Fold:
Amino acid sequence: MRSLKVLIGSLIVVSMGLSQGNPIILFEGARLIMGDGSVPIESSAFIVRNNRFTTVGKKGEVQAPPGAARVDLSGKTVIPALIDVHSHFGFLNQRDGSMSKANFNRENLLDHLKRYAYHGFAASISMGTDYGDLPYQLREEVHPGAALFRTVGRGLAWPGSGPNDPARNDVPYVVTTVELARQAVRDLAPHRPDFVKIWVDDRNHTQKKLTPELYGAAIDEAHKHNLRAIAHVFDLEDAKGLLRAGIEGFTHLVRDKEVDEEFLQLLKQHPGVFVTPNLGVTSRGMEPGRPTWLDDPLLHETIPPGEIKRLENQFSNRKPETLANTRRSWELQVRNLQKMREAGVRVVLGSDSAGDPSRTMGWHAIWEVDSLAKAGMKPSDVIVASTRFAADTLKLDQLGTVAPGKSADFVVLNANPLDNIANTRKIYKVYLRGEEVDRAAMRKQWTGR
Structure:
């Protein structure tokens, strides 16, 4: 009987060799979605000790150690904390909507990481708009009540074709020759960024963009230093060239036309390539009148009324031709995503948060979760993309699933996200590294409520 229980995964126990004296907590009664795609455990039980999961199983089969506290989560659903593999930290002041280099400081970066924690995220990575030593310092730090920070440092771009706003446009390395491409990567290499980020985009035919010779040199140099390369891309032909050059991932879908058989064959020839679709940028702009997402309670918990009003002015009562163009773009991206998934591409959560001031830190990332489901992914697949696959992509082995030995980073929800993925926004509590995040204090600081 005991071997059968182990076989079906109803009781998993690990001997951790942990020191005495730290809190031991038994959480029981919740539906547990472990993040690995397996069947949820109804009426689960799991033990957290020394900030890690030590035992995971069913209520009644997991015994509380002597002195353990108990937390009843009956009627709730638990998922692993989420991970965002495409964000832009530091430049956006979420209180007033300003985008400025003056905002790029430790206080604002930590504010962003706390906003991610508030929304149930354990980690995120800043994609190519970080400069100076501060991002690398912050990467090595762990702050209570804040998500972990990862960075690619400065990205590489043809002058003017990188981030599409004045505050950040000059941050990437300027690349106009093969030697400049290689030197930029050599400059990054000692910092061991998670990726070398490359922008390949002519910004709607208004800028020059990196040529195959230039981005090929950057990717080759990255591989010489055992670094992975990832690309911002828009056009299909550029995506093909990047695949031939050995790119490991895309931070956007192809958006100029339908992907073709040649592209899909290239994907199959390069297994392991991943994509962060960033569909939320488009999905939020498809409603006529006043978008319903503006009334999401979670949005109002972290964004002050003045900024909500700015969002309302930006997204309400959009012109018919604007709505039509947005919907056409959405439909194209959904078709391309489906074809890429069928070709074996791994889909990973990535929101492009703070790519402009309307992409609010934390909320826009969890809106991306919703958008993946709107694009046709099953809720269970969206959760895996947002947890286990995202953790694997960032090589954060301690995160991504609820399992013995993993860091105790999890979200307690008031409703089941397998019924409706929007239930990921019905957050009851967030725990990072075994500690409850003080969301009430954060909410009061940000909105006064």
In short: DSSP finds 15 helices and 22 strands in the chain. Residues 320-342 form the longest helix (23 residues). The longest strand covers residues 52-58.
